[in-house]
From TrEMBL:
Keywords: ATP-binding, Kinase, Nucleotide-binding, Receptor, Transferase
InterPro entries found in the cross-reference section: Kinase-like_dom_sf, Prot_kinase_dom, RTK, Ser-Thr/Tyr_kinase_cat_dom, Tyr_kinase_AS, Tyr_kinase_cat_dom
Segments forming domain Protein kinase: 1-156
An example Gene Ontology biological process: positive regulation of MAPK cascade
GO cellular component: axon; insulin receptor complex
Organism expressing this protein natively: Xenopus laevis (African clawed frog)
Gene Ontology molecular functions: ATP binding; insulin receptor activity; insulin receptor substrate binding
Protein name per its UniProtKB record: Tyrosine kinase
Lineage, top ranks: Eukaryota, Metazoa, Chordata, Craniata, Vertebrata
The keyword ATP-binding is assigned to this record: yes
Amino acid sequence: FGMVYEGIAKDIIKGEPEVHVAVKTVNESASLRERIEFLNEASVMKSFSCHHVVRLIGVVSKGQPTLVIMGLMTHGDLKSYLRSLRPDAENNPGRPAPTLKEMIQMAAEISDGMAYLNAKKFVHRDLAARNCMVAEDYTVKIGDFGMTRDIYETDY
């Protein structure tokens, strides 16, 4: 769809003078369908408030490109993060591979995020390590809501 940039948002959240954010954009060459899907992801995220779900901070729809602002997940997606911890990985940050206890903690965080989405009557439909994000404090959060649907949306 587009690019993701790292930035600092100032005075966007009450009580937090600065917040490190990820800013997603949609390519100017994107089709109307792709633009709608991009905005749909933000629309889905706006009602979520869970420590184990990536936080939507805001949307800038005035002007081009449209921007979706989310909490920054410093360590990227879980799949890439875990691969980087392999001893033979070229991009190994010098951290050891996660212990069994740490992996169980990650699984519990993913489960908590999914239970939250279930309670909100949403189905993610694309849960994978590539769609789970790792925060600065190594908390794992559910992300990528492009495929998420309200389980009741077809009932009306």
